[in-house]
Predict the structure of Large ribosomal subunit protein uL13.
Amino acid sequence: MTNITKPSEVKRDWIVLDAAGKRFGRLLTEAATYLRGKHKPGFTPNVDCGDYVIIINASKAEFTGANKAEAKLYHRHSGYFGSVKSEKFGDLLTNKPEKLYKLAVRGMLPKTKLGKEMLKKLKVYEGSEHPHTAQIAKEGK
């Protein structure tokens, strides 16, 4: 018989991922796996059973593609005519790396209320310091 994890039974851990020297996409797929809870044996798709993820050294990740900083664009739209706003990948990386990481991970999570709750457990910091030292965090892979 299959055991279904209930929301009250979920035990959440804190996991620290260091982005220095790692590929951007590979790091984020690992983060999405931890946020979703797929690394746990009691994974249930309709329950938020994932862990909190802290990404440090966000500005030191490696990126592939020689022209990506200028060619890749992130768009947003308010719904009004002519209100499409675009930001270049390179500008986001230098000015707001936290936003870049959240946008990328958001695409890997479910597009539901549950996915929005999972994304709230992602904490991204540009430097090597983070304010979550009170939580006993484990090192990621």
Observations:
- The mean pLDDT is 92.
- Strands lie at 14-18, 52-56, 73-77, 84-88, 122-124, 137-139.
- The two ends are 31 Å apart (CA to CA).
